[in-house]
Amino acid sequence: MARIAVQREAFDLAAETRALTAGRVDVGGVASFIGICRADDGLLAMTLEHYPGMTERAIAAIAAEAERRWPLSGCTVIHRYGRLLPGEPIVLVLTASRHRNAALEACAFLIDWLKTRAPFWKSEEFADGTTRWVEARAEDDAATARWGS
Amino acid sequence: MARIAVQREAFDLAAETRALTAGRVDVGGVASFIGICRADDGLLAMTLEHYPGMTERAIAAIAAEAERRWPLSGCTVIHRYGRLLPGEPIVLVLTASRHRNAALEACAFLIDWLKTRAPFWKSEEFADGTTRWVEARAEDDAATARWGS
Amino acid sequence: MRVLYFAWVRQKVGLAEEEVSPPPEVRDVASLMRWLAARSPGHAEAFANPAQIRAAVNQEFAGHAAAVAPGDEVAFFPPVTGG
Amino acid sequence: MRVLYFAWVRQKVGLAEEEVSPPPEVRDVASLMRWLAARSPGHAEAFANPAQIRAAVNQEFAGHAAAVAPGDEVAFFPPVTGG
After folding, report:
1. Which chains contact A through at least 3 pairs of Cβ atoms less than 8 Å apart?
2. How many Å apart are CA A55 and CA A40, to the nearest integer?
């Protein structure tokens, strides 16, 4: 059963990692990915909007799919929303397994699917005062497609 | 230039992650993998022996290969040696990049190559008093081979 | 029926959500979009190009042919950009 | 020439390292293993199956055909199991 959180606050990587492994001696590897806000093209800030209720369900479904595909001993997904500055973390994916490949592959799978299957939208603010909605990218669809459906 | 450490002590995941991203606004993702000692088959402890001097060179060469293959903004490999108990972390690989795929793939590459190209040997102690050297596994060679040479 | 809007769909409509009672012939997502488009200039602009709009019915992603019924929660938004 | 042993090679030889002065005809890793095998029963046991042994010359992995020379640091060990 994955731990899912959708929150404004930052997350604690070390604490989340400990929670996946504390008291266990059957975990051989923990993989993680942190997505971070970049300051491309004079970006000042990014605001993430989401669909409360559906977001948690969608992420739980994605995590359940990862747990169906790989023998995970634990899985954590924390996705932030609200206004974030360059350098701030946006999303954390953590996977634990007996075997390194299961943890690494499930981690890559989760972040690819979150990109295209979790109901978040990003609005970017730039130094020149303009704002724009981030458009979905064909390469993210391709990254999702490589895992099959 | 990667940060390489070969040490007896545990490592600090959060501090190492911060070191890769502090003051930067061009990092879009940080991937990590932590290998952990499992208590399989009644294992009581594992002792890692290594080749001081060569170990650091070999890991630096592996990290340089990762930096040649992927556009990384940072890379950290910390490998422990000495006697470790079940549940204790053995190795940390951290990769940072503008793009998530570069970070995730380089992280998987590094741990695969460390398995077969870093001069470490593991001796296992079991509850029945026996000890044995861990043998190299054909599947680790296959995992290394998938990256080409 | 509760209708929710997100991202630029929300901005163009000018509302985050509204309660609507479409007529019985509105039975799927596509016909609901056409019916909503007539409610205001903002709605019309939001739904001007239905191919750009994604939907969810009762918090599950749904195609434009998916059925909708009184009591459903239906959401409209651009393609998602999570992660 | 400095010779280092690791893991079960070290245990069988009974030494972690030793200084040796092989004769001039010992020019590669394979002939060095044969020459070392004659030094003691422990050495003989360690090198009984050369196919199980990996080597490094001056801290770089080296095949059994790699050259060795006076002044080199040569290490012998089982296949590595890092990570």
Report:
1. B, C
2. 27
Pairwise CB contact (< 8 Å): A25 & B39: yes
Q: Which residue does chain A place closest to C60, by CA atoms?
A: A54
Q: Which residue of A has its CA nearest to C5?
A: A51
Per DSSP, the three-state class of A115 is: helix
Could you tell me the CATH number of the domain that includes residue C33? 3.10.20.30
B136 touches chain D (CB under 8 A): yes
CB burial readout C13-34, b (16+ within 10 A) else e: bebeeeeeebeeebebbbbbbe
- Contact of chains C and D by CB distance (3 or more pairs under 8 angstroms): no
Residue D56's domain comprises 2-77
| C75 has a pLDDT exceeding 90 | yes
Report yes or no: B133 and B123 within 8 Å, Cβ to Cβ.
yes
| Superfamily of domain covering B3-145 | Molybdopterin biosynthesis MoaE subunit (3.90.1170.40)
Closest residue in chain A to residue B14, using alpha carbons only: A14
Residues 21-60 of B with CB under 8 A from A: 21, 23-40
ipTM of the shown complex: 0.94
Facing residue for D59 by CB, picked from B54, B90, B115: B54
What's the gap in Å between the CA of D31 and the closest CA on chain B? 23
Per-residue pLDDT of chain D (83 residues; tens, 9 = 90+): 999 999 999 999 999 999 999 999 999 999 999 999 999 999 999 999 999 999 999 999 999 999 999 999 999 999 999 98
Q: Is residue D20 part of a domain?
A: yes
User: Number of folded domains in chain C?
Assistant: 1
In a domain, C83, yes or no: no
What is the residue extent of each domain of chain A? Answer: 3-145
- Stretch (H or E) spanning D32: helix D29-37
- Asked whether residue D83 is assigned to any structural domain, the reply reads no
* Cα separation values, A35 from A5, A69, B25, B29, B50, Å: 15, 23, 12, 4, 34
- CB neighbours of residue B98 within 10 Å: 16
Q: Is residue C56 part of a domain?
A: yes
Q: Answer whether B29 sits within 8 Å of A39, measured CB to CB.
A: no
User: In which residue ranges of chain B is pLDDT below 70?
Assistant: none
Pairing of the two strands D54-57 and D60-62: antiparallel
Cβ(D82)–Cβ(D11) below 8 Å: no
